[in-house]
Write a structure and sequence with these properties.
The structure holds two protein chains of two kinds. By secondary structure, chain A is an alpha/beta fold. In chain A, 41% of the residues lie in helices and 24% in strands. In chain A, helix 5 packs across helix 6. Chain B is α+β, with helices and mostly antiparallel strands. Helix content of chain B is 54%, strand content 19%. In chain B, helix 3 runs antiparallel to helix 4, helix 4 runs parallel beside helix 8 and helix 5 packs across helix 7. Chain B is rod-shaped. Classes of the chains: A alpha/beta, B alpha+beta. Chains A and B meet through helix 1, helix 7 and helix 8 of A and helix 3, helix 4, helix 6 and helix 7 of B.
Chain lengths: 228, 421
């Protein structure tokens, strides 16, 4: 469960390392181009997080190099640059995903999981949490072998919560993850609440215990040992 | 009124007035001169007639050269009076009309008898002369005015040509473009104008560039610290040791930092549009575009029970623009129609060839309508958005020379986008 992080901003690097550690990931750190090249083959990484703006070299070159060396690893570009051209350029260089700074750590984790799933498991994999099982490739969800009919957004939300199990995820991060640019700026995040309420109801109707805990209005926590 | 029209009119009025006065004076002088001339001739004739009476028999003088009509009458010595000069009308049986004559009446004494002599001279020839001269003068005035008209145009084109060129260049000037550069002028006033204009536009362009760079740098430099705050907040939230108070503080920080990063990315987007970084052009179907965005905004529309009425044109309406900017335009217009709607209100979408109309229920603006499309102007009754959405819309419209209009009618906000201008 090794992840390589290439990022020159120490503070941001520490945040990512700490948050990913909570998820059980161990991180290899590199803060410039040359260090990154040196540690590129050190482990068999699940995922590599690469900043494009690096001291000593271009992150895109690093992406290409990493793609050649470790074809099994997922690569996520984390960059302050946010234009379609740059995204396309990054993905063409071999990245699996592109995240624009500033991002939510919970979103980063969800994307790491998703990229890792796509590159490692090659489909056919089952995600499970308590009574819930999700088949991401078939877009289906089961509670104790009983299928639950979820909309695409509800399923995405469930998978996002499962990726961030036992963590507090903020309303903003859910909105940004599911709705992207359409998430913010509406003055309230009530639509997140409405959606989550529907998801919880459907799961409970299928006989699933409620795993969602409301944390002081800031967000939600998805855990088996919910404090009620 | 155009400068040329105005100056031509001014010159024409003034010269007509002057010519009128001058004409009257000229006419009077001419008339007086011809009258004086006639009088002089009459006096000459008087001497001739007196001479004849003196030397010959008065009764035999019938006509002398230069006299149009003559009458000599014997009168009593005591009937004599002063000599008189005057004008009179006499009937001309040949031409069947009255004619004006100048006459002199005088008395001549010969051998104890007095004769009353009346000499008449027709004014016809002199009148004719005055008439001709006046006609010539009028013709010359007309010619002169026509000449002035042509000359004025010619002088105008020569003298003011550079001035008009400067106006054309100024019209084209935008702060986003290069400063106005005019060639050196040989007229001193225009040279001064040129220098002032170049200085001004250079300054404007420079200010604009600096402001843009400033926004550009600021938004870029803010991204990393924002990312740090955001991630540290998220990490802190995970801590098990925090109580409700601390979590409340963290929530406030979290909300604010998210707003700030949204603001920052919108400003960066505005700058990117200004820098013309969206140059890809492709054909986009407007109806399809609207449907796509309505789909993406489904949750927001449903949450407030907003009804969407669609009046699409039966044929596809094709826009030729950057996909990203098209998305931005429609997304922000629809977002605006949702945010400023009322609970259970409606959104009416109408597409026509080259035109999009988005109408939504809502309350009247809490600020001046002219400020609607400017940055950071928003309804203070609402929080959480920065009022940047419509300035994004305007920026996109400016990029493609679309026209965007707003009106508020019957509790409805109406936005019209006219594409083919």
């Amino acid at each position: 469960m090794q992840i390589l992080i290439v990022e020159d901003e120490a503070s941001l690097m520490e945040s990512m390392v700490s948050y990913l550690a909570l998820e059980g990931f161990r991180c290899e750190k590199a803060s410039d181009y040359h260090t990154a090249v040196c540690v590129l083959d050190k482990h068999d990484y699940i995922c590599m997080l690469i900043d494009l703006n690096l001291p000593g070299g271009d992150g895109l070159e690093l992406v290409k190099l990493a793609r050649e060396n470790q074809s099994e690893s997922g690569i996520i570009i984390i960059s302050a640059r946010n234009s379609i051209e740059q995204r396309v350029e990054g993905l063409e260089a071999g990245a699996d995903d592109y995240m624009v700074k500033p991002f939510h750590l919970s979103e980063l984790v969800a994307r790491v999981h998703s990229v890792a799933r796509r590159t490692r498991m090659k489909g056919g994999e089952v995600l499970s949490f308590g009574a819930i099982s999700v088949l991401p490739d078939e877009h289906s969800c089961f509670v104790e072998k009983k299928p639950v009919d979820l909309t695409r957004k509800e399923l995405d939300m469930l998978m996002f919560l499962m990726s961030n199990r036992n963590r507090v995820v903020t309303k903003e991060s859910i909105a940004d993850y599911l709705w992207g640019e359409y998430g913010g700026g509406y003055g309230s995040y009530d639509f997140v609440y409405t959606h989550l309420k529907n998801l919880r109801r459907k799961l409970q109707d299928a006989g699933c215990p409620d795993y969602v805990e409301n944390i002081y209005g800031i967000g939600y926590k998805f855990s088996l040992d919910k404090k009620s | 009124m155009k400068l040329l029209t105005k100056s031509t009119l001014l010159i024409a009025t003034l010269s007509l007035f002057l010519f009128f006065i001058m004409g009257i004076i000229f006419f009077q002088v001419l008339k007086n001169m011809s009258k004086a001339n006639l009088d002089r001739e009459l006096f000459d004739l008087k001497v001739l007639v007196e001479d004849h009476i003196e030397n010959y028999n008065a009764n035999h003088i019938i006509a002398l050269p230069g006299i149009d009509s003559l009458s000599i009458r014997l009168v009593g010595l005591n009937e004599q009076a002063e000599e008189v000069l005057g004008d009179t009308l006499m009937y001309d049986s040949n031409e069947n009309q009255y004619k004006t004559y100048r006459y002199i009446h005088f008395y001549s004494v010969k051998g104890g008898a007095a004769y009353q002599v009346k000499i008449y001279k027709s004014t016809n020839p002199t009148d004719y002369l005055v008439e001709r001269v006046t006609l010539m003068m009028t013709l010359m005035v007309i010619l002169f005015l026509a000449g002035i008209f042509v000359l004025n145009r010619f002088i105008f084109a020569n003298l003011w040509g550079d001035f008009f060129k400067a106006i054309d260049k100024l019209k084209e000037f935008e702060a986003t473009k290069e400063p106005v550069i005019l060639g050196e002028q040989d007229i001193q006033e225009f040279e001064e104008l040129r220098q002032a204009l170049e200085r001004m536009t250079r300054r404007l362009a420079n200010d604009y560039k600096e402001l843009k760079e400033y926004t550009d740098h600021t938004t870029h430099e803010l991204q990393t610290p924002l990312a740090v705050i955001k991630s540290k907040t998220e990490l802190l939230i995970q801590s098990e040791r925090l109580g409700a108070e601390e979590m409340k503080c963290l929530e406030a920080i979290n909300t604010s930092v998210n707003q700030l990063s949204r603001l920052n990315s919108t400003l960066a987007l505005l700058t990117r549009i200004e820098n013309n970084q969206f140059t890809e052009k492709e054909e986009i179907d407007l109806n399809g575009l609207l449907e796509k965005h309505l789909d993406l905004l489904e949750e927001h529309i449903g949450l407030r029970n907003i009804r969407v009425e669609k009046h699409y044109h039966h044929e596809p309406i094709v826009l030729f623009m950057d996909q990203g900017l098209a998305d931005l335009l429609i997304a922000n217009l629809l977002k605006n129609a949702i945010i400023h709607n009322i609970e259970g209100g409606s959104i009416r979408l109408e597409t026509l060839p080259g035109k999009l109309i988005i109408q939504n229920d809502g309350q009247a603006l809490g600020f001046n309508q002219e400020e609607l499309f400017t940055r950071f102007v928003r309804d203070t009754r609402r929080s959480g958005n920065f009022g940047l959405g419509l300035s994004l819309v305007k920026k996109v419209c400016e990029t493609y020379n679309f026209i965007i209009e707003y009106s508020f009618d019957n509790q409805q906000h109406i936005f019209r986008v006219i594409f083919n201008s």
